[in-house]
Amino acid sequence: MKLDIAVLSGDGIGPEVTAQAIKSLEAIAHSFDHVFTFKDALVGAIAIEKKGNPLPDETLELCSSSDAILFGAIGDPKYDNNPSASVRPEQGLLRLRKELGLYANIRPVKAYETLLDKSPLKREIIEHTDISIFRELTGGIYFGKKYLNEEGTIASDLCEYSKEEIERITHLAFKAAQKRRKKLTLVDKANVLESSRLWRKVVKQIAQEYMDVSLDFLFVDNAAMQMILNPRQFDVILTENMFGDIISDEASVIGGSIGLLASASIGDTCCMFEPIHGSYPQATRKGIANPIAAILSAAMLLEHFDLIGEANAIRDAVEKALELNLTTPDLNHNNPLSTEKVGDFIYDYILNPEDSNINFENIHVGQSTII
Ligand code: IPM
Ligand code: MG
Questions:
Q1: Residues of the domain holding 9
Q2: 316, 296 in Cβ contact below 8 A?
Q3: Domain containing 150 — which CATH number?
Q4: 258 lines ligand 1 (CB under 6 A)
Q5: Is the CB of 93 within 6 Å of ligand 1?
Q6: Is 189 a catalytic residue?
Q7: E strand or H helix that includes residue 266
């Protein structure tokens, strides 16, 4: 298969982890005889610095004309600490999602057997957890009308959803549940919010078309508690934009590190793949950022194009790295590998899954077989 991939590595650790994701895709292209081309474009704080715009026109054009987008991270403390900045890196990401119609954000959460003791949660609680979060990504409070009065003393953000916006992601979530354990949980706040009541109504109607999937409902405050009390109860979680943002960061604790959580953002014509961890500015260029979330996002890219064997080859390599404890300091305090070395191992393992231990030794003494 031939795929043109736009690379928006962005800010902070974005470029370092995205480089490792590209490497794993190059290994796949080599092993499975595909042609992947990569073209870079600016987004976020770096784009503001260079072009005065967090999403320059040429970036949007490249994204629209590519088959897929690999996204790194955006954000810079310079803007976080300045609430009155009128241009912000996040605007680049939000506009990208909106303009490309990336309405469904899929965030898988899994407790890896080899990492069970690395999570702050107890092994017996998280063991066998396997959740797929479907977060609506182009509506709700993120994109509703914003208001600040002239005195700067009253502000509001409108949370608005239309039936159509709810329907399209709900179908995707039900279809995913059908291929999994056939359970869908809608997370909302229908006891308080009108928009949540609309979600419930629409989701209940659509459930009639998916009778093999069981549907239940949880208020978001209860869901936040259930996520760490009994995460195994969840299969597919469907939720609106902001609840999904919060719940998915919380869920990342289950895996032992937010550096493991990948995501796919899907629309009718475009698709984008990004780690959920953000720009982690304190770690920039220190070689300590975990590249696995970015690499697993590349696996989601392959899966999106039905390259299932290829996606699994990446996942097997990641699992091997975790099993051998070839990981960055977030998961391995005593003998960590650098971001690049973890990427090297995964690259090498994809190319030579049979002799990983030899490569492990090579990498360990800094003599990767990779040229
Ligand atoms: C995410 C991030 C973004 C969001 C920020 C960077 C705007 O937290 O992708 O989860 O809130 O959607
Ligand atoms: Mg978030």
A1: 1-103+267-371
A2: no
A3: 3.40.718.10
A4: no
A5: yes
A6: yes
A7: strand 262-266
Specify whether the backbone of 270 is left (phi greater than 0), alpha (psi in -120 to 50) or beta: beta
Q: Which ligand gives the minimal distance to the CA of 76?
A: 1
SS3 122: coil
Domain co-membership, 50 together with 128:
no
Rounded to the nearest 5°, which phi and psi values hold at 243?
-60, -40
- The position carrying tokens 């690395």 is 118
Cross-strand bridge partners of residue 70: 7, 273
Decide if pLDDT at 196 tops 90.
yes
> Which residue's CA lies nearest to atom 8 of ligand 1?
245
Report the number of distinct structural domains present in the chain.
Answer: 2
Looking at 260, 285, 314, the residue that finishes a domain is 260
263 CA closest ligand 1 atom index: 9
Mean pLDDT of 123-134: 97
Quick one: 131 and 247 in the same domain? yes
Q: Are residues 165 and 245 in the same domain?
A: yes
Q: Which ligand is nearest to the CA of 240?
A: 1
pLDDT in tens, 21-64: 999 999 999 999 999 999 999 999 999 999 999 999 999 999 99
Domain boundary among 220, 241, 260: 260
Mean pLDDT for the stretch of residues 186-197: 98
Residues 159 and 74 grouped into a single domain: no
Give yes or no for residue 316 CB within 6 A of ligand 1: no
Cα 141 from Cα 254, distance rounded (Å):
27
Q: Are residues 174 and 87 in the same domain?
A: no
pLDDT over 70 for what percent of the chain?
A: 95
pLDDT per position as a tens digit, 160-189: 999 999 999 999 999 999 999 999 999 999
